Structure formats: C-alpha cells, structure tokens
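Hi,

I'm pasting everything inline rather than attaching a file, because the server keeps stripping attachments. The sequence lines come first, and each chain or strand is labelled.
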Amino acid sequence: MDVKHVANLAHIAITEEEAALYGPQLAGIVEYIEQLNTLDTTAVEPMLGGLTAEGESTRTIRPDEPHTSFTVEEAVGQAPDPVAEHFRVPKVL
Amino acid sequence: MSIVNEIERVLDNAERVNGELNSFLSIERSSSLKRAAELDASSSEMPLKGFAIGIKDNICVKGMQATCGSRILGNYKAHYDSTAVERLKAAGAVVVGKTNMDEFAMGSSNESSAFGTVRNPWDTERVPGGSSGGSAAAVASGVVRAALGSETGGSVRQPASFCGIAGLKPTYGRISRYGLVAFASSLDNIGIFGQNSRDIADVLGVIAGRDPMDATSANVEVPDYAAELTGYINGARIGIVRDLIGEGLDPDVKDSIEKAIDNLKKLGAVPVDITLPHAKYGIAVYYIIATAEASSNLARFDGVRYGFRAEEAGGLREMYMKTRDEGFGAEVKRRILLGTYVLSSGYYDAYYAKAQKVRALIKQDYVEAFKSCDAILTATSPTTAFKIGERLDDPLAMYLSDIFTVSANLAGVPAVSVPSGLSSDGLPIGLQLVGNFWGEAAILRIASAYETAFPLVGKPTVFAG
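And the predicted assembly:
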C-alpha cells in the first residue's frame, strides 16, 4: 500500500514518520484480511447495510410537514471562523 | 431521601473516583442538581425518576460536550438530545456526566482517547476495555447504576467483561441511533451498561423502539423487559460452539466458561452443540466494513463547520489536510487510511464487496444456529483486562480482543455480557449470551438468572458505592 497516496485520498497530511509507522502496521492488517480470499463466495448474495428483515419492512415514509429546525446561531455558532452567518474558509484559488 | 440528595451523592462519588479512574470527561453538577430539584417538586410518576446515568461522550446531550474522545471535537457542544437521551430524560433519569471513550469509539482499551486513558476499577494498572471504557468504569466503580455506551464490534460487551458488570448490545434497529455520532453506520448501536441485567432491562424498556428520526430503527413491539426477568430458565437451550472454547482462550477464561455451562445446567438450561462455521472470519470482515464506513462518515470533520481547525494553512485543501492530521489521533488515522484503501479504485471488489458476502454467510450461520437453540454462549473476550500499554504497538493484537463479539454486530443480533467469575489473579471474566433477532428479553432472562444464582464474589479496589 502506498500510504502517502492513500492519505492524500483521505485528506490527511501525514508526516514521513507517520507513514513509516503506519505502512508496516497496515500491511500486516491487509495481510490478515486477505484470508477472506480462501472462501468461495461466487454464489453468495452480499449483505448490504445492517438491517434485519423487520428493519427492511419498516415503513419510513412520513408526511412531508415542516417542523422547526435549528436556529442560525445553533447551526453556525460553533464554526471555527464564522462571518455574518456564513462559514469562512481559506482561499480556494 | 430526596432526589437532590441522591444526585449530590452520585456527583460527589464521581468527583472522588475520577482522579484515579478518569472515567468521566465531564461531571454535570449544575444541570443535574437543577433537574433533580424539578423532579423532587414533581408529583408525576416516572419509570426512572431520579435515576442517575452516565452517557458516553459520542451520544448527544443538549448543552453538554460531545467530544467523541477526540481533539477534533474538543470544544464541541451538542445542541440537541439524542433520542435515547430524550427518552431517558422524559422517564425521569438524570444525566450526571459524559464518559470517556476511545477516540470515535475506535479501540478496545480506551487508550486512544485524546483525554487520557481510563483505568480499570479492579486494577488501575490495567485497561477497562473499550471503546466505552469510561461508562464501564463509572458503573463498575459504583458511581452510577447504569450508563449508555455504543457498540460497533464489542465496545459495550468487552469493557463490561473487563470491569465485572453487565453490558448489552441490542438488535440492530432496536434503539434509535439519532444523536449517536456515526462511526460505522451498518454496525453501530447504542448499548447499555448496568450493575446487573435488571438495570439494563429498566433502561432498555425506556429507550427501545421505533424513532422517525432514525430510518434504520425498526417498528417492532417493545416487550416489558423487566417483567421478562422471571428467573425461570428451565429447558432453555444454550448453544455451545466447541471450536470457540479452546485454543487462543486464556486458561482461566476457559475454566470459567466451562463452569458457567455447568452452572446453567444446574438452573435447568440444556446445552446444545452448535456451529458457527464463519465466525473465525469475523475480525477480517469487520475491519473492512467498519473502516470503509468510518472513512466515509469521518469525512465530515474538515475544520469548516464545527470543531478544531488547524492554523496557518495556505489554502482550503491544505487546511483540510492539516486539520485532519492534527485533529485525529493515530488509531483513527490508521482506520481512515485502511477504509480509504479498501474502497479505492481497483480494490473495492477484492475487499469491500468480498467482505459484504462473507458478512452474509456470518448472518446465515446465526439464522441456522437459532433453529436449534435459544441463546449462544461464548466467552466475551479471550482474556481478562490487559495491562495499560501492552498492546499499543500492535494494532492487530488489539483488534483480536474482539474476536467473540464482532460477529453479533455483523449479523445484527443482540448479545449481553455478564460476569461469570474471577481469574486466579482476581480479575473479572465475562460470559456472553447471544440472542436471536429481537430476543433481548430471552438473553437478559438467562443473564439475570445466572447473576442472581452465581454472583461475582469480590469487589473492585476503586469503589464508591
């Protein structure tokens, strides 16, 4: 695994020291999970998500009625850099 | 005694033991005393009136911190109640504090918390288990009778086992996850710790059931769990998986589990041999699915809308990358990297799609097994609580702590851990009972009968009760 490349995909700026530590640890874990390849699963339907049969059959549709929502203060009040009810970020270009 | 007096006693105990255990990240004195006074003044009957409870710090309680044990949410406060907490409050329970945890519930020892490890009340040199170690230690040390935790692969049952108390992971969809910070959405559950199974039944009866705010919560009738604890388990068929009581099991744990089978026979239960042929693949499947889902769920922590933001970043992308490097700890980063890798182009079919198929086989094992038994008995963990620091450099060894617990999360079935005895060096051993879908009452009944007939003899060294 190219740890620096994967970290880049995950938007994490890991250091050289971290890459040197995680590389062998992740390689060991990947080797362990590859034991699944010893199983023949060609005829198996994958399990998507975690729902039980009863969960699958639960009706989740409800009337589309408006409810009160969070206030602006609640929604943006904990932003690291809020400006006039917006989120400010460093320059993009 | 008034509720105010009782809550004051709980808060004093929490403060007294916290220096040694670090089980609470916040002790909420003013809000809980205010609530206690309201309850004293109220004449209405409530099922949990004045019941003090601790809440894991990844479950939202309005106005209280919700750090998830992470620097990236170090200054974050929840502005709404999770459904479980809303129902507890309506039933008269009082939230006395937020409990310590492995960062984003990723860990089996509580050592990955950004706010220091929790210590085991039975031996403060040892871990309490994880990831809900703070909740487990708060209950085991006698501060509260019950606490909420969360479970993705054993994070309630394993610390319950290490700390000598009872811990339940419900059926997937039994307890609403609204307000539980997501780790791996298809595996996550809110779980309950209690001094015993009766405390768990009391809390479960209040928080279980369909919630429109969580589309994965199921519309299944909620029984009167407390009334189900009859003590009568004559004829209950207990599934025994012989392959799982042998190699890799600490000898004291093995002895204790064999003794537990004999004890259950004395209570009238009938052991039945069963097999779970794919259980041995549980950890491999778990570390693909859980990390894949985590890499997606944790993408929201980017320093824009809330939480920590790294300083001095040149542009937007650099800000994201530095924020996530500085805000997340090593275990969270390892899991995000693994999850990103197994989902990345060219690897998806080999890892993620494969794991979903083996997950289906694991679930099918349980469906088959429950045709011939009412509950499945295993050890909760292959060992007793290990020493702080012992497994930190070997993530895979840490992951293998969850070998007996992960498959219940993968299949979605409920499971409870109750104390089965003490090891030769005086540490608690946990016995796990896995139930059929929606069968919490059946496993709690067996657990309750067991702990009543064969209570743990001994007490933690740090105990406030």
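The longest helix of chain B spans residues 348-369.

If the labels don't parse on your end, tell me and I'll reformat.
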